[in-house]
């Protein structure tokens, strides 16, 4: 790598600032000390060792995605170019990680009104993620796209996600009606290499197919073809995304928590959880990262929200993620954060340098309440507000981190993904739980199957039909 | 009122189902009983009396909005018609309640891809809410609108909201550049009747102006011109919205908690808060109500998140609102809700009958994992999933409500607004706090003023400049 490039990467390194987690700033009652962290040395070492061990055992394959996909990336880029040249719209059919990752990256790295730009300025198809089965939403989408000129990327590892497959069945039928035997050209499947309905269909019907590698769970799949294809179709430099993730991964391989940003974020959140802080707020000060808070909410909630630990003991672990947006939610949530219960950790996501700037003109100079704004830029205003909010929280002794991206670009966004994924997995180890499964959603899935009459779910149906009836006196 | 109309209103009544808050369903440890509620009789009576008393004193004027705006509504409808005939875009400049209410109502009652519909189908201007000062976001909006053909509705009661006024200064300058002396025709101000910069400007410059009545705080202002003008511009029947709110208000005037849906929702949330449930999740099973969860998040957080009670004692009250969306967040949050800490109350927002329906075709009949979906509608699927999730939460002994709108229309949305506002105010009384102020945001505001050099904030500036420096060892 050239010296200039290394230097640029260094400049683009994400900063994790945990000053406002520490007693010097937050006070003794709420803050933490170096000693609190050092007292966990054994646990940190253990967790680090377990991470290393798992990395070969199939659960941490997502960590290698930034390093082992050269061939896949070439195929993705080629496919994306072809789609960009012929499609008017690109629709992801997916839910959970298959939707949240693509949405987060698209919003971070493309124009904030991308779909409303003129075609020539956009340079690629309009982009939609259909991550619900609300009939009004699905019907609304079909009002604004022409299926014949749309590529549908159906994403489901198992090929049995009810919401995604229901959407796919509708799209499949519609495409056959509209464009006949050529319909398969408008479908791309992203799924498991071997198992499930979707890979079976894809083979039989001849869809272009991408593989979600083994050991890459839905919420850790953004840097697999799940996220890379949609990003590339929208013109995002996916090699830079992966380079950023690889750069951060290296930083986070260090055992020393005082050098490893993911571990430090994780250890301090873990300490806060142990003190009963059951809420984790992510508050970006940029619309571009708004959907990163959604992506992180799944990662954090589904990975750490677990009834039992690795020994099978009931622990009812988890911290509830909350998505906020600065400055917007200063006018919605900050009153609560400053004055309410001492039950949360706030993570600010800041930006060093915004990609665009707008100056507030010097007008209404005789109105003292607003005249001082004139001459400043919006970038100065939003940064002052972020700093002021951090300061207000600190004064009120409220725990908060600040994670700063020097600029929003593919390299820093890649770093952010890897940073937060490693943090989450590491906290799973500290909590001694399995961060990679989701047993708690089975009950709801099975009840849905039963309600819709899926064969094999008769006893669950029986259970549902004989459940205690709701009391009408409890309905107003 | 005609008999048919009364009957229709009755059919359109929102249902509040609290079965899954009660011991019969949730078990003795987590559930509540009739006795728990009855034990609060004195407190409920007191709170009811205080609500009545406040209603004359200037804090509860928002409760009368559904009943006392005939004249204003006529002016709004006339103005909206004129705008619909000449504008290509309508942009709200506002933040907090001025943004969240208009967004929630627009998303609920208009097409889910409203801005992307062809003009003739939309019948009115495209609609945007600029509720942040992120320069990238502001610049992005100017890429897709033509200011000369856009009406800007600047909303700020005080006329000194920094974010809104900064936007306005930019727009003001831009309009003068683009269309010269006629620029005032593209501006509508919604503000206080007498006080503040904005009403002063509006008079001097001759903007069309609407008034936010006294006693109507930002988060309670959706049914004032703040929300009614944007709604009317987008073709929403604001008289029906108000009729729905009036209908619900009447139901919620009853002192008997077993007849008053807002009081019952409030009392049970209050009981849950007393047991340490510090998180309130709102989870609509419809994209149309997605932004209602955002609107509610402000209402709930800012009203109830208070350091001191009415006697000035430290209470650090508040419950953190969380926005979720069914079915989408079943694949993100439900794992945590079912298996994590017993720290939350979930409120499902359901729909009796979706306004559109899509049938899943009978295809892939040889694939057992998905064939059962064929022949069902998406409405059946999403409702089965809602029921299954409620059921799974109940089985895991997790407190949950279900609030059902028989259909989403202006009448039911009006009901929902009034229901949740009254619930919030009532919980404020139960907690013995002031639900109508927001002292906790002052520190951040003042620090922002100081950082931007506003005259009069020199000592705050001094304070900021001499604050302890962050330690570089706490930055990774």
TrEMBL record, chains A, B:
UniProt GO MF annotations: carbohydrate derivative binding; glucose-6-phosphate isomerase activity; monosaccharide binding
Subcellular location: Cytoplasm
Pfam families xrefs: PGI
Keyword Amino-acid biosynthesis on entry: no
EC number(s) recorded for this UniProt protein: 5.3.1.9
GO term, biological process aspect, one: glycolytic process
Pathway: Carbohydrate degradation; glycolysis; D-glyceraldehyde 3-phosphate and glycerone phosphate from D-glucose: step 2/4; Carbohydrate biosynthesis; gluconeogenesis
Keyword set, alphabetical order: Cytoplasm, Gluconeogenesis, Glycolysis, Isomerase
The reaction(s) this protein catalyses: alpha-D-glucose 6-phosphate = beta-D-fructose 6-phosphate
Sequence similarity: Belongs to the GPI family.
Function: Catalyzes the reversible isomerization of glucose-6-phosphate to fructose-6-phosphate.
Name of this chain's protein: Glucose-6-phosphate isomerase
Organism: Desulforamulus aeronauticus DSM 10349
Origin organism lineage: Bacteria, Bacillati, Bacillota, Clostridia, Eubacteriales
Gene it is expressed from: pgi
